Amino acid sequence: MVGQVVISGLLAGSLYAMVALGLGLIFGVMRVLNVAHGPMLMLGAYTTFWLFHWLGLSPYLSLLVSMPVLFVVGAVLQRLLVRRVVDAPELSSLLLTFGVSIAIVNLAQLMFTSDLRSVEYLTGSFILGPFAFSKSRVIACVFAILITAGAFWFLQKTRLGKALRAVSQSREVAQVCGIDVQRIHMLAFGVASALAAAGGSLVAVMVAIQPEMGQVYTFKSFLVIVLGGAGNYPGALLGGLLLGLVEQLSSLFLTTQVNEAVAYLLLVLVLLVRPTGLLKGRSS
Amino acid sequence: MPPILEVRGVVKRFGGVAAVNGVSLGLEPGRIYGLIGPNGSGKTTLFNCITGVDQCDEGEIWFKGRRVERLKPHQIFHLGLGRTFQVIRVFPELTALENLLVVTTTDYAAAGRRAQELLALVKLERLAGEFAGNLSYGQQKLVEFIRVLMTDPEMILLDEPAAGVNRTLLNELLDAVRGLRDRGKTVLLVEHDMKVVMGLCETVFVLDHGEKLAEGAPGVIQADERVIEAYFGR
Amino acid sequence: MKRAFLLGLAAVLVALALYPMQATGYGVRTMLQLFMWIALAQSWNLISGLTGYVSFGHVAFFGMGAYSAGILIGKLGWAWPAACLAGGVMAMVLALVIGWPCLRLKGPYFAIAMLGLNEVLRVIVSYYEGLTGGGNGLSLPTLHASVPIYYAMGLVAIAVTALTYLVITSRFGLRLMTIREDEVAAEAMGIDTFRHKLYAFLLSAVGPGIVGGLAARDQGYIEPLSVFPLITTITMIVMALFGGKGTIWGPVLGAVVLFTFQELVWARFIYLHQLLFGAIIVAVVLMMPRGILGVLQQKYNLPRTI
């Protein structure tokens, strides 16, 4: 029983990790708390839904569409709006992304209505000994791992990725080294939105799709960043897994309703005890 | 006379680097001290540890016979230890006068009088109602300086008071500092301008790579080979 | 100039006091809502406008007041004025419970914590079904008299505005502003920032608490979705931002302007209306972050008591 729960936790956690990495990138590079991160995920989910509905495209193939599309959306958002508040007090970027998130969610309400949608694609479970895991969760986890690994490969091995990490550490020094910080900012926002979109496409087969679905992911991504340490990218992975585990474990003891509050309590606890995160992060 | 400030083996690390690595100092009341060292030697970090802005990882800090390293900055301030900042930190949307008033908790009228007194001291009375953010660099520097004097602290830490300040203003500041010493206050200043340090300080501490390299009268320090090496490279 | 302003203000207050005598029930209920929004926007201003700590969960206090008053009236038979005041007190208690841990956090982390607050409260309300009626909501014995509520709301709006005036013109208010300007310097200058933030937070919770109770009394029915909705927070924020956060009359101006538009134009189209609010927030942050009054204040060097 516990084994099942632990593995479920890790499966869910891998998704959280991937999505949170996106949020972490924006925060690490620009010190911006992107409240509109969840809506990006939502848009990814809707992309997958419509592609499935109209073209019968496999949700997993739709990743090839949702990720690039939302990459562009994210980069454009950054270029047009977020860029203007990067140097303003943190209050400004917070309110700005808050406003953007409201706008996107309600735009979705107007365009897609709040009817619940779903993608019926992969049902059933894999049975492995005493454990049973829903197929869609396992495949989602596999993709999440692949995509996250890809993101880390990008950060560690490519020139742009290293430039991005440099800007996270110190904008001034990066500028002096000839790095085009504006482009890096756009890139970070784009990559982050792509990661969120991937999360959306993957959960599209598992949960009900509706305009407000992203909200809870925004909050949980924040939580993961806090757990893992702001600016600590590998930390986001551990934070995500930890969150997944805690949630699944607590579902053993608590009713589903109270379960939702667990994430929140975890957040407050961590913030009080170790404001810089459980792992070494940089304080904001 | 018992020291007014004692720093014992303070260590402060950031990530893997020890910005301050086992520094010990003793300051006697009523004197002007200097803290010098090449960039990155840990001077501002040490200031931050003393004033509670950063928490040191190891060591003790004693002020007027009390341990203060775990206290919050506002508590340390009320014990009688004030500071200015390397990068000016006045409150830009408050007027010069309000910047001063906000510091005190005493009777409003008394605070107002003291504020006017201090403004007059640095010849800024006519700018009392001006938003601090609109003042010139030098004027803001002066406001920050007198702001720390509002509650008449016994010890003042000045972080690079001479930076970006013209000669005339600088001389006024230095005179004001000497005036403080004459009234029994203790001053510790971080400074890069050697002329200022040599002309003003009675004792100088030298930091290098987070450790205390030397301590003594300005003339002695100037001639110390280790100090010269630290500044001009190995 | 000042005398003209005060006379004008007095005239407006008298007109508002006499309004119910020849207005329709609908008119009274609409104005009552306006007063509610003024109180809410002004309360948000007290914490977020002055200290710069953005409270995304302020509707929690509204909901707390609504439920407290609702339970006192519905289950314990209290009279509504006392119940609503009790709602305000309960909201303050909630603010203490939340603020004590959360205000120790730096600005952005505080905002994150407040974002999650709504969800938690909704969960708690569903959990204690016996008391709160859970997802089915709570009904109150009907009351066919919006007029007393009108006056009560009006009083609260006036009280909160007066409170804001007192705070902004005091040294306490100045200290709150230093937190917004430079928290590290404020601490170094002897200001106990945690305590100040907490006091501001407590003060900012009372208004919504009382007003929540009054709104519940007026509607006669409380339901989790109706008292903890994000739109309430969004509206509070957009009104205060638009009019000018950190000023005294800014939130009032924002409330009047946006409420009027809302009633005339958008209320029918809820998503369009929320979308526009989101767009307004973005526009205000980008183009006039200090709101209308803030901009005027800067341009014409107006005193802080605007």
Q: How is the topology of this model organized?
A:
The complex is a heterotrimer of chains A (284), B (234) and C (306).
Chain A: H1 2-30, H2 37-55, H3 59-80, H4 90-112, E1 125-128, E2 131-134, H5 135-157, H6 159-169, H7 171-176, H8 181-203, H9 214-228, H10 233-253, H11 256-273
Antiparallel strand pairs in A: 1-2
Chain B: E1 5-14, E2 17-27, E3 32-36, H1 43-51, E4 58-63, E5 66-67, H2 73-79, E6 81-83, H3 96-101, H4 108-121, H5 137-149, E7 155-159, H6 167-182, E8 186-190, H7 194-200, E9 203-208, E10 211-216, H8 218-223, H9 225-232
Parallel strand pairs in B: 3-8, 3-9, 6-7, 7-8
Antiparallel strand pairs in B: 1-2, 1-4, 4-5, 9-10
Chain C: H1 2-18, H2 25-51, H3 59-74, H4 80-102, H5 107-127, H6 129-132, E1 138-139, H7 146-168, H8 171-181, H9 183-188, H10 193-219, E2 221-222, H11 224-227, H12 230-243, H13 250-266, H14 270-287, H15 291-299
Antiparallel strand pairs in C: 1-2
Q: What would you say this structure looks like, in words?
A:
The complex is a heterotrimer of chains A (284), B (234) and C (306). Chain A is mostly helical. Chain A has a domain at 22-213. In chain A, 74% of the residues lie in helices and 3% in strands. Chain A has helices at 2-30, 37-55, 59-80, 90-112, 135-157, 159-169, 171-176, 181-203, 214-228, 233-253, 256-273, and strands at 125-128, 131-134. A two-stranded antiparallel sheet of chain A has the order 1-2. In chain A, strand 1 (125-128) and strand 2 (131-134) form a beta hairpin. The model of chain A is unreliable at 280-284 (pLDDT under 50). Chain B is an alpha/beta fold and 234 residues long. Chain B has a single domain, classed as P-loop containing nucleotide triphosphate hydrolases (Rossmann fold). Chain B has helices at residues 43-51, 73-79, 96-101, 108-121, 137-149, 167-182, 194-200, 218-223, 225-232; strands spanning 5-14, 17-27, 32-36, 58-63, 66-67, 81-83, 155-159, 186-190, 203-208, 211-216. A 6-stranded mixed β-sheet of chain B has the order 6-7-8-3-9-10, sandwiched between helices. In chain B, strands 2-1-4-5 form a 4-stranded antiparallel β-sheet, covered by helices on one side. Chain B is globular, with a radius of gyration of 18 Å. Chain C is an all-alpha fold and 306 residues long. Chain C has helices spanning 2-18, 25-51, 59-74, 80-102, 107-127, 129-132, 146-168, 171-181, 183-188, 193-219, 224-227, 230-243, 250-266, 270-287, 291-299, and strands at residues 138-139, 221-222. The relative contact order of chain C is 0.17. The chains are: A mainly alpha (284), B alpha/beta (234), C mainly alpha (306). Chains in contact: A-C, B-C. At the A-C interface, helix 4, helix 9 and helix 11 of A face helix 5, helix 12 and helix 14 of C.
